[in-house]
Amino acid sequence: MKVSVIGAGTMGTGIAQISATNGHEVCLYDSFDGTIESAKNKLNKILNRLVEKEKITQKEKETILGRITFTKDIKEIRGSGLVIEAIIENLEIKQKVFAEIESLVSEDCIIASNTSSLSIASIASACTKTERVVGIHFFNPAPLMPLVEIIPSVQTSQNTLNKAKSIIDSWGKVTVVAKDTPGFIVNRVARPFYGEAIRIYEEGVADFSTIDWAMREIGGFRMGPFELMDYIGNDINYTVTETVFSSFYFDSRYKPSFTQKRMMEAGYLGKKSGRGYYDYSKAVPKANEDRDLGKIILWRVLAMLINEAADALFLKIASREDIDLAMIKGVNYPKGLLAWADEVGVKNVLKQLEDLQAEYAEDRYRPSPLLKRMVKENKTFY
Ligand SMILES: NC(=O)c1ccc[n+]([C@@H]2O[C@H](COP(=O)([O-])OP(=O)(O)OC[C@H]3O[C@@H](n4cnc5c(N)ncnc54)[C@H](O)[C@@H]3O)[C@@H](O)[C@H]2O)c1
């Protein structure tokens, strides 16, 4: 089956690499001058590194590259069985491109979007055969991150969903199915990891390095929230938060923070600009390794994360297993949040949230009805 990728930026180039590695004839298209050349050079470099590391042979590298057609002519996507769009995050432009794609491919071709924040329903509405449109959401860097969220919209047929899922599964990815709602699973459930950590800092409970230390050393997270935000980029992370917030009709649970907005405005974007929450020309400030303080920090962030996961389950955004798998495989959490809730006690999670809500009188801390119901019925997630 021929696979076409629209947009040869960060994500598109990675998706083209995965498709070609899995034996597909690939067409990688971009409309901008120079992008195609740079995608080709970038892929060449990445594959050379894989040869050096003996992950693939020189011959395999040539075969993979040989399967990819790099083009500025969109007509070359003709004959594809699957088209994955990964262009700029702009609804109008995506809709125009989807209509153009549909005019070039056959009836049974699946057309997917890699969008992070737009609804699949709104993108699909530009097509005539909307049942063939689906979300296929990779994580960055696509060739390395195992998780892919598959998002059927109200228009997507079961056949399209099954086919899309089985293709991505056959590429060795871990797929989860999520409802067409803001942030899908990962970008929704992960919000408190950043937001609550920032709140804790804003209140003066602890500094960045202490919060990071607590989440890493006591929580077992691979990176603390501030180092992770610096790694992702404060511009990107802030934009995701703001988009999720406005898409949820300004539900205060997702409210962005001025602290991060100012970082972005100051150009303190993180690692890529040399400075974010941390100044990368200096040593990392020493954390206050007080374990009691660390537990307070972890417990507050964790309760908020579990609340999001529980609410996602309550609203049937995804299955219990998929919500847990998504956070482990998409953002490297040490455990699934619902399994973690069972381990620490659903009752204790609810108590922490109720205490926070009583103290702050903010809707931000309202516990999911599912947690309340479970405690009443003495139930566990698994
Ligand atoms: N970067 C991430 O971490 C990430 C992760 C998951 C999903 N996404 C989503 O993937 C998509 C692409 O993101 P990216 O980070 O790869 O962006 P990018 O800016 O690196 O690449 C976008 C590419 O699309 C091309 N393009 C723009 N308009 C076009 C058009 N009309 N026709 C053809 N090509 C066009 C640009 O030339 C560019 O090469 C977005 O929808 C984004 O939300 C990004």
Helix and strand topology:
Elements lengths: L1 E5 L3 H12 L3 E5 L5 H18 L5 H9 L1 E4 L8 E6 L5 H14 L5 E4 L6 H5 L8 E6 L8 E5 L6 H13 L3 E4 L8 H4 L1 H12 L5 H11 L6 H8 L1 H14 L10 H8 L25 H24 L5 H12 L5 H8 L1 H15 L8 H8 L6
Parallel strand pairs: 1-2, 1-4, 2-3, 4-5, 5-6, 7-8
Antiparallel strand pairs: 6-7
Bound molecules: nicotinamide-adenine-dinucleotide (NAD).
Q: Helix count?
A: 17
Strand portion, in percent? 5-15%
Q: List low-confidence stretches.
A: none
Which architecture of the largest domain would the CATH scheme give at its second level? Answer: Orthogonal Bundle
The end-to-end span amounts to 39 Å
* Average of the residue pLDDT scores: 97
State the share of residues found in helices, binned by percent.
Answer: 40-55%
What is the CA-atom radius of gyration, in angstroms?
22 Å
CATH topology of the largest domain: N-(1-d-carboxylethyl)-l-norvaline Dehydrogenase, domain 2
Structure, briefly:
By secondary structure, the chain is of the alpha/beta class. The protein has 17 helices and eight strands.
Structure commentary:
This protein has 382 residues and is α/β, with parallel strands linked by helices. It has two domains: 2-177, Rossmann fold (3-Layer(aba) Sandwich), CATH 3.40.50.720; 188-376, N-(1-d-carboxylethyl)-l-norvaline Dehydrogenase, domain 2 (Orthogonal Bundle). 51% of the residues lie in helices and 10% in strands. It has helices spanning 10-21, 35-52, 58-66, 91-104, 120-124, 158-170, 186-189, 191-202, 208-218, 225-232, 234-247, 258-265, 291-314, 320-331, 337-344, 346-360, 369-376; strands spanning 2-6, 25-29, 68-71, 80-85, 110-113, 133-138, 147-151, 174-177. Helix 4 links the parallel strand 4 (80-85) and strand 5 (110-113). Helix 13 packs across helix 15 and helix 13 crosses helix 16 (346-360). The longest helix has 24 residues, at 291-314. The relative contact order is 0.09. Bound molecules: nicotinamide-adenine-dinucleotide. Nicotinamide-adenine-dinucleotide is lined by residues 6-12, 30-32, 35, 86-89, 93, 97, 114-116, 138-140.
